[in-house]
Amino acid sequence: MNRPLVALDTPTLYYRSYHALPDSITNSAGMPVNAVRGVLDTVAALVTAVGTPRVVAAMDADWRPAFRTAVAPEYKAQRVKDEQAGTEMPEDLAVQLPLLNELLAAAGIPIAEVPGTEADDVIASITAQTSDSVIVVSSDRDLLALLRPDRDVAIMRPRKGGEWETLRLPELQELYGVAEGSQYRQLAALRGDPADGLAGVPGIGEKTAAKLLGGYGTLEDLFAAAGAGAEGHGLSEKRRTALLHARDAVERNHRVMTCLEDLEVADFIAAAGSQADTAQVAALAAEHSVERSAQHLLSALEAVR
Fold first, then answer.
1. Does the keyword Hydrolase apply (predicted)?
2. Number of separate helices (H) and strands (E) present in the chain
3. Fewer beta carbons below 10 Å: N end or C end of the chain?
């Protein structure tokens, strides 16, 4: 049996490292390498913790894909910093990504990127297309929808102090009051996601959304109940009115939050766990002053082979 496959939501990791480590960490040319160093150290620690060299680094080929903004033009619109380039990424982070990609690929970690899609879509396709256990590393709550009874998936979320929280299917009920991932996505559609510019139903937060879905089962059934004047499971007149008024927005949220599962990811899965090109890693690391972190990653990968 194959050991678990680790699917990295790499943007989560490089943004976290970029903000956690000082920009005074640079290479000899003065280019910041704080995010690179942080990601290499984080992946090394993860590999050691889970005991597998089978790692895939999912990337955003497009952080605001056209198929999502066509449904909800407001999707992440408030995060655009450069209207002409259409990006949210600080320049001193953007310049680090080519190096990060080169180092990860040279270490035997395939860069999983599909044109026109986000890292979430790549990860969802990987979990849908492998029978192996998958450990998804991400702080993105949308990926909790991947926790399903028919798949062996865990979500590892970063916490303060270098700690990690691992969530599996049973924890969804305890933490969010829903039984499985598809119901969590419906909860999220009701709640909305301000970070992504998606408005939910006024007056309905996570707990109320979970109670309503627990009572009525699905969004479709919930809206039918609201339209029929039902009163159980916390469905007051005020909430019925709010739900029906926001129905179109909730349905758009649900479509936008649904990740693609049919992308061509077989090659990424097959390449996970490849042998590192240690000479290439060493050369890149020396050129960019990240030798310790690069060696940390190589040693961690070799130790679990």
1. yes
2. 15, 8
3. N
